[in-house]
Here is the input.
Amino acid sequence: MDHSDAKRITRRLRLLIAAVLFFLMVAAAVLFVLFENAWQKPNLLLISIDTLRADHLGSYGYPVDTSPILDTFAKKQAILFETVVAAAPSTTPSHASIFTSLLPVHHGAFFSRRAPLPPEHVTMAEILKKKGYRTVSINDGGQMDAMWGLSQGFDEYVTLPGVSIKAKFARNVKRVFRWLDDNAEAKTPWFMFLHTYETHHPYNPDAEFYNAIGHKYSGALPDTIDKTLLQEINNEQLSVDEEDKRHIIAAYDAEIRSMDDAFGVLLSGLADRDLMENTIIVFTSDHGEELGERGMMGWHSHALWDEQLLVPLLIGLPDGSGAGTRISDQVRGIDMLPTVLELLSIESLPHAEGRSIMPLVRGEHDEPRPAVSQRDTVSTPVPTTLRIGTRKAYWRQGEETPLVFDLGTDPMEKNDLFESDEEAATELKTMLDALITARPQAFTETEVELNGTVKAQLESLGYINSGDAGRIGGDE
Here is the structure.
């Protein structure tokens, strides 16, 4: 073979290689177009219904028909966790714990101290943003206003006005659809945090939702239960009978039914936009509400009883995995961030105090999860509860020894067992001390300045009085 033959063969090989490479590039492009949705990371929709008690939902055993759509979602599309303990009975510290997987005294975001979440704490939105997610929050402000540091990591943080309007969640859902439609052409996944005060007082449901739960009332109280009325009742300035109390509870339940109706609209809108197949839906709350169990009506943040701490948690996966499963093991608000990271195949955080709850779904052995809850207060030490197994210990404000309860036989927390079971109290205190001293407490001297808009929101929600910056409501 002479030199010219070798050159011809070399040229042909180069052309062949170029043709093969071109074919592979075209094939890769076609495959990318065909399977782009399959390759794209799932979207994440985290819904927090402020002040929603788990035990007022049908899927958690409530006999009133408050949540038919959510109940169907639980049966056909989601995994339901039966015992979920919030980190605090108030909005700012509880959501900060959800976002950071830290206990309140470790992240330091306390409304009562006017202390925002310090910027050095890494949040869910910050992590997902670094991983290529578009991050947006649509919320009702107040204790969720950006001034509290909860906006860290969000590309857009939309606070909607009017916490006293009717059907707040329906309004917020419309805003969700507007954002989705405006961003429909974007190819990157999104994380949306959707929050509403729909089930927080003032309870202001439309008449159709009273009718939907079968409520009839002939007493003197109005259909709208605002914070002034609740204050008068809780301060014993206004006397109410059992029928009146049932009406207040019905107002709360009717707000849940209103929220549930909007949740159905949300699910339908996601389906219409072909988003259900690639969106993880997490539905939860930051805390519950006392409804007369211990003398307070329509109030929270003042104590650490289970009616203020037990919240719902439902997780709907795009492929329907685990749909209809119910998990009885105790989980916590601080487990939310590690769970989300596992679901999105993102490495876990070494600083997290919670851990993913997905092993429970897979039926894997899991160590008990001690749940620490703390009041949003300026008091030191911070009133705290520790809940593990059937035991709960409650260190109240100004008291050195805790109340101790066996929740298996005493779910209403009426019988203090401290004197008969000091050994259990000592064990729980040792466990609590280890959890609290595992890292420094994060209280800072930083205080936010409340602007006029936020003051008006907080006053309507009952967190401050007119012309006052202090928390209102009873103490434990």
User: Anything to note?
Assistant: The longest strand covers residues 78-85. The domain at 41-369 is CATH 3.40.720.10 (Alkaline Phosphatase, subunit A). The first helix runs from residue 3 to 39. Residues 29-38, 467-474 have pLDDT under 50 and may be disordered.
